[in-house]
């Protein structure tokens, strides 16, 4: 035991010195980000249609070529580009060891506050990099991908001032994109839409560590799971937000991430109800399924398939508030949006290597006791957000002997962990010793790694999905 402690202490000291070279200590030592002075010369607090949004992104990438890179992950049904802007001190390529994080806005076309705030976040980052230590630290150590609108077609038919309702929520074919992903618990028969397929392809290519999906219609940070193996079709009506929670093995982390957003927000953590008939959320956070279960949501997919911790951020009671309120929304959310991204630097990160120091791609990793796994990148990198504590990392790769490595996570900085695997004697017939959510076989439409007991057909299922869609039209 003593030996173990000595080893871990030495290791931590080592990891600290390594990390101190590349990443500053987690934001503790830095002053708070400064308030943003809106640069109205380039970006007013008004809603930007697709052409204006495109112009702003293009102009920004031309003006700040060392801090931004603009790319499109595909097109909407009506041919609008699904733009992503990278903001980072290394915008053009992934730097080995530097985590990629993302924000996705406007997946529901009629919830555009996030869409506008993401433009302001871009503007804030590029104009503050040289003057704000916190922003400089964040951009030097993180590659931030910002997609202001995942549903530009829906936005095009939405109406400013429409606080409720579903007009513009869906894509141009009438699909709810946040019900269009493969589901962990239930078969999702919805046909994959171009916008969803583009996002699935995007997150299969970049190992995102952390993500926020911005919505409107409520004021709460909602974390996985969104679905549950045993959702009651009547629970939605009779229990409203007291439905049973569906918790992930990383529930402590998801609660923490949600609280980081809520507590840095001007109002969210007060848990004030948007209207008298809507729920008030304790501390401004909720488990998704406890609020209302849904099938095919984006956050569960990010987490289960790719190990990306995504939280759904509902940032406005009114789905499409008048433009004159946008400045206030920015002020309410600015600190939350920045602090949330910094959480990518909490936990453990490192490399899985063979004895010659060559990276092992697609090694499967799992934190012992947390049965949702993750994988290494082609550079052998991995990241996992964890709260301070003692953990064991289980590592498996085809053709190598599995390994279990102990480590400690502390509050101030991420733990750096390099794992060397030795080739196993017997490669043929090796059984995978633990859960591997990746990769998704191409021919497999629906991925159900566990066998929950549920009835996926019949009248209750129909009632349930009907009520859920009604419920989600009312809220975010
Ligand atoms: Zn929404």
Automatic annotation (TrEMBL):
Residues 46-344 form the Peptidase M14 domain. GO terms for biological process: peptide metabolic process; protein processing. InterPro entries: CarboxyPept-like_regulatory, CARBOXYPEPT_ZN_1, CARBOXYPEPT_ZN_2, Peptidase_M14, Peptidase_M14_domain. Residues 1-20 form the signal peptide. One of its GO terms (cellular component) is extracellular space. Its cofactor is Zn(2+). This is Carboxypeptidase M. It comes from Ceratitis capitata (Mediterranean fruit fly). The gene is CBPM.
